[in-house]
C-alpha cells in the first residue's frame, strides 16, 4: 500500500517531548477531522449506489485479490442511554430484537459471499456499536459461527470487541475468549460517581478493575479503555483521580477523547445541563494532566488520542513505522479492504468508501429486497488517492518522502503541493514539522497536533468555511 512506501521513518519517541502546557494546548486547539478516512465521511454522496458497490466488489473479485479482509460489524443496541452519546444506536430493553438483527446480518454476509466468492481470509474483525455485548452469549456464538462459515480467520489476526462493563462478568469474558476474540475495549469515560450520575452511566471502578483482572487471567492480548474529558461535573482534580486509577489499572491501550457538546446534533446530549460542563480552561488542564500522567507512567503517545504501553503491538508498530489507520482508529494490520456489516456501517473497498442505511427500518427494507443496504459512498478521484496517501503517511508515520508519492502517482510533489508546502512553513515556525528538501518530518512536539499538519493537505477543507462540525484537535 502506498501509505507504507510514503513513510521514511516514524516520528521520534517520547524522549524529547517539550512541555505541553495548557497555554500551548490552547494555542493549537482548532477543529479538525480525525482522518479515519480521507475524504472524510461527510463528503460521501448518494450518487454512490448499491450498483457502484457491486461493481467495486466485482473488481476485487476479477482482480483476483487475495489480500486478507477486515470486517466490522455494527451492533446498534444499548440497554440504557448515556447522555454524552454521539453514536448511531438504538436504546431498548427488548433483547428479542437481537435475533431479528442477526438474521439480517446473515443476509448481508450471504450477499457479500455471492459477490466476493467464498473462502476469503480475514485478518481483522471488530465488533462495535451501540453495545455488542447487548447480544447474549448464544447470539455472539451464532454471529461468530456465521462469520466462520463464510470467511477464514487468520490465526494471528486482531479480533476485537467493544465491551460495556455493565453487561459482562468473568464468565462472559471467558466466552468471548472462547469465540476467538483477543482484544477487548472497555468504555470507562470517568470513574467519578458524580460524573457517572450526570451522564447516566453508573459503573463503579471496582467493577472495571475486576473485569480487567479477569481479562488478564483469560490471556487477552490487549485491553483498551476509553476515557472522555470535558463531561459534566468533571473538574481537573476529579479527573486526576480517574487518571491515577487508570495508571494503576494499567491497560495496554488508552483512548482519551474530548467531549464535544453538540445538543442540536445529538439528542441525548440535551439531557446534559450545560452549566455543569467544565470551562474550556479546565478541559485543557485535564488534557494536559492526562498526557503528563500517561507519559510519566511509561505509556507511548501513539497519536490522535491514543496511548499504549511500550510492549503493546500498537506501540511497537509505531516504533517500526508500521502503523495504519482505519475507521476504528490506529491498527497494526496492513491496510486491507474493509467490509462493514450492519446499520450505518462504513466500508472501504479498493478506491471506494460506502455506507449502509442509517435507520434500521431502511436497512431491513433493502435487505428484504435482496439488495445491499448501501445508500451512499464515494469513488475516490486520483487527487483523493494522492492526498489520502499523503495524509495517512502523516497520521501514521509522522513523516513523508516526496519521491515515494511522485513515483506512485507520477506527480512532481513540490509543484502539485506548492501552496501546501508554503502553508507548512508556518507550522515549521511553530516547531511542529521539519521541512527537508526530500521530505517532511513531524517533530515529537508536532505529533501531539498531527492532524493540523494533515489538514493542510485536505483539499475539501481548503475551501470549507464550516469546520465547526469537527471536534477540537485533541
Ligand atoms: S455511549 Fe455507547 S453504551 Fe452509551 S448509549 Fe452510546 S453507544 Fe450505547
How does this model look, in words?
This protein has 474 residues and is of the alpha/beta class. The protein has two domains: 2-30 and 382-469, Arc Repressor Mutant, subunit A (Orthogonal Bundle), CATH 1.10.10; 41-339, tm_1862 like domain (pyruvate-formate lyase- activating enzyme, Alpha-Beta Horseshoe). 40% of the residues lie in helices and 20% in strands. The chain is built from 19 helices and 19 strands. A nine-stranded mixed β-sheet has the order 9-10-8-7-6-5-4-1-13, sandwiched between helices. The relative contact order is 0.18. Bound molecules: iron/sulfur cluster.
Main attributes of the structure:
single chain, 474 residues, alpha/beta, Arc Repressor Mutant, subunit A, pyruvate-formate lyase- activating enzyme, 9-stranded mixed beta sheet, 3-stranded antiparallel beta sheet, 40% helix, globular, disordered N terminus, binds iron/sulfur cluster
Write a short abstract of this structure.
Helices cover 40% and strands 20% of the residues. The protein has 474 residues and is of the alpha/beta class.
CATH superfamily of the largest domain: tm_1862 like domain
What is the SS-derived class? alpha/beta
Q: Judging by the overall fold, what is the CATH architecture of the largest domain?
A: Alpha-Beta Horseshoe
Strand order of the largest sheet: 9-10-8-7-6-5-4-1-13
Number of distinct beta strands: 19
What is bound: which ligands? iron/sulfur cluster
| Radius of gyration computed on alpha carbons | 22 Å
**Helix share bin:** 25-40%
Quaternary form: single chain
The average pLDDT value, as a whole number, equals 90
Briefly note the CATH topology name of the largest domain: pyruvate-formate lyase- activating enzyme
